[in-house]
Amino acid sequence: MEINILTVLNILNRGKKYFFIVFICTFAVSTLIAFLLPVIYASTAVLFPLSPKSYDPRTKFSYMELYGSVEDVNRTVALAESGEIRDFLISKYNLAERYEYNTKKASDVYYLRQEYQGNLDVKETNKGAISITFYDKDADTAALIVNDVIAQINVINKSVITDAIQRQFKTYQKVMIEKYNGLDSLAEILNAIKSQSKSPSGEVTSMEMFHAFTRVKEAEVNLEAIQDDVQTVQVIEKAVPNWKKEKPKRMILIASACLSTFIITLLFLLIKDRKDFDELETRR
Question: Where are the domains of the chain?
Answer without folding.
Answer: 1-37+248-284, 38-247
